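Hi support team,

I submitted a single chain yesterday and got back a structure, but I'm not sure I'm reading the token output correctly. Could someone confirm the output below corresponds to the sequence I sent? I've pasted both exactly as they appear in my results page.

Thanks,
R.
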Amino acid sequence: MRRIVGKWYRCAYCAKDLCADCEVFDTHDSTHVFFVIKAPVDMKASRCVFPHPCESC
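Hi R., thanks for writing in. Yes, this is the structure output for that exact sequence:
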């Protein structure tokens, strides 16, 4: 796994993060909504705003 560069797609329902290249080809659940993040992110802060189901602040 590599660091995401460019647009970052994060599923609002499950622990799925995609880069722009992978998002085009991904066969993720079509009923799930993705947040698109375009700027660098403070990962510690983002985990509180966009937590994965198995994480907490």
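A quick pointer for reading it: The two ends are 23 Å apart (CA to CA). Let us know if anything else looks off.

Best,
Support desk
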